[in-house]
Structure formats: C-alpha cells, structure tokens
Amino acid sequence: MIRFKNEERNKLLKCKVLEKVLPNEYQMIDEKNKEFKKYLADVASCSTFRTTHQYVQHGNTSVLLHSIAVAYYSYYLSWYFHLNFRERELVRGALLHDYFLYDWHNSGEGHTFHAFTHARDAFVNAQKEFELSRIEREVIKKHMFPLTPVPPLCREGLMVCLVDKGCSLYE
Questions:
Q1: Which DSSP helix (H) or strand (E) runs through 43?
Q2: pLDDT single digits (tens) 92-127
Q3: Angle 87-96/134-142 helices, nearest 10 degrees?
Q4: pTM (2 d.p.)
Q5: Nearest Cα to 64, choosing from 110, 20, 107, 114?
Q6: What one-character DSSP code corresponds to residue 8?
Q7: Minimal CA–CA distance to 52: which of 32, 75, 69?
Q8: Distance (Å, rounded) from C-alpha 155 to C-alpha 82?
C-alpha cells in the first residue's frame, strides 16, 4: 500500500481516493469507478467514517485506507470475474467492516482481544449511523471468520472476508 503525507491524506479525505490509492492498471472503467465513488461518498458524507484515518490498522495503514482498499478490491474482483454481487451492499459492508472507532493498539484500554471483538464493535457503530441491509450486517459481523465462529453465509461476506485477509497481509 502506498504511504501518504499529511497533505495527501487531506486530499484523500475529500474522496479523491482512487487516483491516489491505486495505479492506473488496477482501475476499472470510468463508469464503474463513478459507481464506486458514489457508494464511497454515500458512506463518507453522512457519518464519522472519515475520522477512521486517525486510527492505525496494519503497519502504517490507517483504518480508512484499509477499508477503502478492501471495498475497492472486493468491488473490482466482482466486476473483473463477472460475479453477480449486490454491488452497493458489497461496497458499504466492506467500507464499514472495520468501523470500530478506537485505536486497538492501546491494549490498556480493553482492546486485548480486538481480533475477536472488533467485528461486533464495528457492527454496533455502523448500525447507529446507517440503516443496514441484511447483507451489510452479514458482511460486517462475519468478516473475521475463522476468528468469529460462524462463516459468512452470503457471497458478499465471503468476498470481503477473503479480500480483507489479502489486504491485511499486504499492509
């Protein structure tokens, strides 16, 4: 993942995401990029989603960039392989899958079992700010399988679960 300076991060927070996060060869056709940006703007405009840039997820990657990467690659793979996904729900679920709103590296604050509990925390936070569909709830609550005992039961949840693992390893 590309590392960002403060001024680049500020541009990113204004939803100029794709041009900074992904090289051109990974970007979808313009029409699909516009759809993705619309879904991203929908989540970012009416929530505290943008504040997730202040929390580190893996390495030096913020929760914001990680969530956007997971959402984008999930969306991209579903488009590339012509999979029949509910795109809006896939992207929204992926964007909110790590919406836990705390720094999990501070174990003294009760986040010792973060890997096992943050999906529930993200779900509770997302439910406070959004009207979530059944698919979005499934994606958020079960993205940490096998650390959560029940696997995702929908295709969107499985896609986000797998892409999340890939992004985490890369970061």
A1: helix 30-45
A2: 999 998 887 666 556 666 555 665 667 888 888 899
A3: 40
A4: 0.78
A5: 20
A6: H
A7: 69
A8: 13
What is the rounded CA–CA span in Å between residue 58 and residue 40?
A: 21
Strand partners of residue 58: 61
**Structure token digits, residue 71:** 């959402």
HEC secondary structure over 109-157: HCCCCHHHHHHHHHHHHHHHHCCCCHHHHHHHHHCCCCCCCCCCCCHHH
Task: State the first-to-last Cα distance of the chain, in angstroms, to the nearest integer.
Answer: 6
Whether 40 and 68 have beta carbons less than 8 Å apart is answered as yes
Task: Answer whether 160's CB lies under 8 Å from 169's CB.
Answer: no
Q: What is the largest CA-CA distance in the chain?
A: 46
Q: Which residue has the tokens 């797998």?
A: 162
Residues 103-122, buried b or exposed e (16+ Cβ, 10 A)? Answer: ebeeeeeebeebeebbbebb
